[in-house]
Structure to design on (253 residues):
């Protein structure tokens, strides 16, 4: 799945189809589950993502911890010592930035005029604490201008599927009264949260020139996407992770 906003940059929002893992995690599961080791199945799934997006690239990811932190990348990480962060930025060709999600919001960024890209994993904690703002700042440090940056929001949990408590909603309303619009009443004591809309709002407030929301709900489409909340509701012991990637090709390729 791709975004028209990023049509000049190699990228992709992948779901659960097209890989080799089997069982409940079938088939393009990209989860590492805290291990520094890459299983044969994960290695093959990674190879397929690279081949479909930017052949020959090095796939780079971080150890995601629901933080607002963004790291600038100029070379692949040692797989056993990936930094703890939730976003990446680079101006180096041949790197494919990857973010894993399973309901959280994947955001891909590009300033195509100067060849600077970013990728962010925005769970609610990272979203409210500014992971997208820090990604934009890291891109600016590499020469990007926020007025030229375009962003695409990939598959994530939709408003109709994301039930939260009233106390949760108040955290966002305390940050800014206007955030009330991202919540609608649910059953007593609960509300439905539009996290995609909230992240898009943060991006627009930051001065991003174009934000493309794909509008795909991960929870309600079990044949297409992994979902942490769906797995929890079903009492499953684990859940798969999908990947969103963006990369810069070498000149002339």
């Amino acid at each position: 799945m791709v975004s028209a906003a990023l049509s000049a940059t190699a990228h992709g929002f992948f779901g659960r189809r097209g890989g080799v893992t089997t069982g409940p995690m079938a088939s393009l599961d990209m989860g590492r589950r805290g291990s520094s080791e890459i299983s044969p199945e994960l290695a093959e799934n990674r190879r397929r993502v690279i081949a479909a997006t930017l052949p020959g690239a090095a796939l780079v990811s971080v150890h995601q911890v629901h933080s607002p932190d963004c790291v600038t990348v100029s070379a692949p990480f040692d797989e056993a010592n990936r930094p703890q962060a939730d976003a990446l930025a680079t101006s180096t060709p041949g790197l494919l930035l990857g973010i894993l999600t399973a309901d959280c919001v994947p955001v891909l960024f590009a300033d195509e005029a100067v060849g600077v890209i970013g990728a962010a994993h925005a769970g609610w904690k990272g979203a409210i604490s500014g992971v997208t703002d820090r990604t934009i700042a890291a891109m600016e440090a590499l020469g990007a201008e926020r007025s030229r940056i375009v962003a695409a929001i990939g598959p994530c949990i939709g408003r109709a599927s994301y039930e939260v408590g009233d106390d949760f909603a108040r955290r966002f309303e305390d940050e800014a009264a206007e955030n009330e619009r991202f919540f609608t009443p649910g059953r007593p004591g609960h509300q439905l949260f539009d996290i995609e809309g909230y992240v898009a709002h943060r991006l627009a407030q930051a001065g991003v020139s174009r934000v493309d929301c794909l509008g795909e709900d991960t929870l309600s489409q079990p044949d297409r996407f992994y979902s942490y909340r769906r797995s929890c509701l079903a009492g499953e012991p684990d859940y798969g992770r999908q990947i969103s990637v963006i990369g810069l090709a070498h000149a002339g390729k």
User: Anything to note?
Assistant: The chain has six helices and 13 strands. Residues 4-158+194-247 form a domain with the CNF1/YfiH-like putative cysteine hydrolases fold (CATH 3.60.140.10).
